Amino acid sequence: MNENYVTKEMMTYDILTIGRSSLDLYANDIGAPFTDIKSFGAFVGGCPTNISVGVQRLGLQAALLTAVGEDPVGEFLFKFLEEEGVETQFIPCKPGYRTSAVVLGIEPPDRFPLIYYRDNCADIEITIDDVLAAPISESRAVLISGTGLSKEPSRSATLYAAEQAQAMGKQVFLDLDFRADQWHDPRAFGVVVRSALRYIDIAIGTEEEIKAATLTNLSQLTIEHSQISNPTIEGDMTIAIETLLGAGPDALIVKRGVEGADVYLTSGEIIHAAPFPVEVYNTLGAGDAFASGFIYGNLSDWGWEKSARLGNATGAIVVTRHGCANFMPTMPEVDEFVAERGGW
């Protein structure tokens, strides 16, 4: 954790989240093949946007830096975020660009097809000037995400935000948020993410995202670790974690779904947080719900295990619901959910 970490009382916002936002159209026809969907529900999505709503509902004060087009979809996002209490005054409109959209099918337990509509997308047009206008200095922490690094000018703006946040002594979170089809080459994801890690205090991702973030180095590292013969997936994961932690973060949080979550520290300590088993309705948004819970716990000094347990709880609640931001739980809902399952 950053030694210059500031207290809540000193800051206007608990966290500034930066990056992707969208209109999410979720299928209302649960279980139907995509070609048979008859109607969709309109919600709000995008990793940093979901997290801003998630932490706000839990009790923190969030500000969001994304960008929207001068269109009714942008107005739809603004209205929702303002009703949630998320600070929107730093969100620019980008003339000539469109607010992003995503269309999603729901075929539980393991098919959730999604199609991104991000050509000419406003939020990838976030600039360094937009970052300079954002309240980094007024925030206790900053979160960036992988998709914000996928294209310019958002890439440079996101890196600049992380650099400035670190220089100001803020806690800097990275949600790896790997969306392969948002990169010109999926291998570029790892190259760019590794360049950002020196600014990061805590990184959060799935096993697949962590492997993608370290892919370029894995083959060479396997050769150098010649004691590993016929390395298994678990062996590769160990190397990936070591590679990522060696690049700068103090901690790496691995989301493992039904197996809970693990916190890997640079000291070598591994802390397991047990899951809250539930019947899966829709996995989309669960990772952002986890991040919301974990960040709330971390910024509230809950400790690694309880923070990750809170992330498991918020993620488990959202997998039983229809969508992302609109379905993030409040703290009373989390308390009731956890109490019904034996407590923390």
Count of helical regions: 10
Ranges with pLDDT <50 over ≥5 residues? Answer: 1-6, 216-235
Q: Report, as a whole number of angstroms, the end-to-end distance.
A: 24 Å
Biggest pleated sheet: 8 strands, mixed
Strand order of the largest sheet: 4-1-7-8-9-10-11-12
Order of helices and strands: EEEHEHEEHEHEHEHHEEEHHH
The tally of structural domains comes to: 1
- Using only C-alpha atoms, the radius of gyration works out to 19 Å
* CATH fold-level topology: UDP-N-acetylmuramoyl-L-alanine:D-glutamate ligase
Description of the structure:
The protein is α/β, with parallel strands linked by helices and about 350 residues long. It has one domain (about 10-340): 3-Layer(aba) Sandwich (UDP-N-acetylmuramoyl-L-alanine:D-glutamate ligase), CATH 3.40.1190.20. About 35% of the residues lie in helices and about 20% in strands. The strands form two sheets. An eight-stranded mixed β-sheet has the order 4-1-7-8-9-10-11-12, sandwiched between helices. A four-stranded mixed β-sheet has the order 3-2-5-6. Helix 4 (about 155-165) links the parallel strand 7 and strand 8 (about 170-175). Helix 6 (about 205-225) packs across helix 7 (about 235-245) and helix 8 (about 285-300) packs antiparallel against helix 9. It is globular. It starts with 12 loop residues before the first strand and ends in a 5-residue tail after the last helix.
